[in-house]
Amino acid sequence: MPHPGLIVLRRATRELAVAVLDLIAQRTCAACGALATSALCGACESVLERRPRPACPRCGEAVLAPGAACPADHDWLRGIAALHAPWRYRGAAGAIVRRFKFEGDAAAGDALVRGLADALRGAATGVVRRALVVPVPMHRRARRARGFDQAERLAIGVAHELGLSFGGGVLRRSRATLSQTDPRVTSREQNVAGPSSWRGRQSSAAG
Ligand SMILES: [Zn+2]
Ligand SMILES: [Zn+2]
Fold it and tell me: In terms of Cα–Cα distance, which of 196, 193, 203, 195 is closest to 76?
């Protein structure tokens, strides 16, 4: 029969091991940074605005039933076959984007990759399996200042998640744009219009 002290010690060791495992399992919320047991804490999860279902396959806005005609004119989507987005860019989703973009928060980056991959998964079938995931690149000066290219990181992650090819270096930014937070920027579309050109090079998904 083991010494009673030994049993107590074993139990204490087991409890300590469980406590350490609990601590390792704790993550930080991708939107607010609070400790959380999943990607988002309960408060942020409750204010995350997911895209509606059923949705228009072209613009992602709500339609009355699957396959029903969308009332939007889609003029602003000229040249774009379909728009896929997991969440509306406000509330928790806006916070996730800002934490990733301006603080380089890895949990926020992971949440964005998973959200984008889930939004695209249904479309990444058939001929789209041969698609390239191409990020719109940052200007090299902006990349140097930030230390990383957020669109490139997301594109690599999404390509990896969906088993698609990553088209790194396919586009080259030919002029710098103002920061979206610059007071001189009145429209995102105007600010980013025409800064990229095709370079015709591609590489495979990393990892
Ligand atoms: Zn949170
Ligand atoms: Zn639509």
Answer: 193
